[in-house]
Amino acid sequence: MAAQVIKFMIATAAAIVLARLLTPQDFGLIGMVVIVTNFIGMFQYLGLSSATVRWPELNHQQVSTLF
């Protein structure tokens, strides 16, 4: 939970600094890119690491498929 709070504080501070340094058009562009990047990041692992840990037996082909 502390890591999430720190991550939120850093993201907020970065947004404040960028808002002061960039023009409104550039800041809007960055905002759109961040939204798309975060949305795609939600699907990064798709729970495969949890599934891998919970399987009692894995063969080499299954591990290769995951990577």
Question: Could you walk me through the main structural features you see in this protein, from its secondary elements to its overall organization?
Answer:
The chain has 67 residues and is an all-alpha fold. Helices cover 78% and strands 0% of the residues. It has 4 helices and no strands. The protein has helices at residues 2-21, 24-41, 48-54, 60-66. The radius of gyration is 19 Å and the shape is elongated. The two termini are 29 Å apart.
What labels describe this entry?
about 70 residues, mainly alpha, 4 helices, elongated
Short description:
The chain is mainly alpha-helical. Helix content is 78%, strand content 0%.
Helix-strand blueprint:
Elements (H helix, E strand, L loop, with lengths): L1 H20 L2 H18 L6 H7 L5 H7 L1
Beta-strand percentage?
Answer: under 5%
What is the typical, i.e. mean, pLDDT? Answer: 86
Label the structural class: mainly alpha
Helical content stands at: over 70%
User: What is the CA-based Rg, rounded?
Assistant: 19 Å
The largest sheet, given as strand count, sense and whether it forms a barrel, is:
none
Please trace the helix and strand order, writing H or E for each element. HHHH
Number of DSSP helices?
4
Shape: elongated
Q: Give the N-terminus to C-terminus distance in angstroms.
A: 29 Å
Strand segment count = 0
- Which regions are unreliable across 5 or more consecutive residues at pLDDT < 50? none
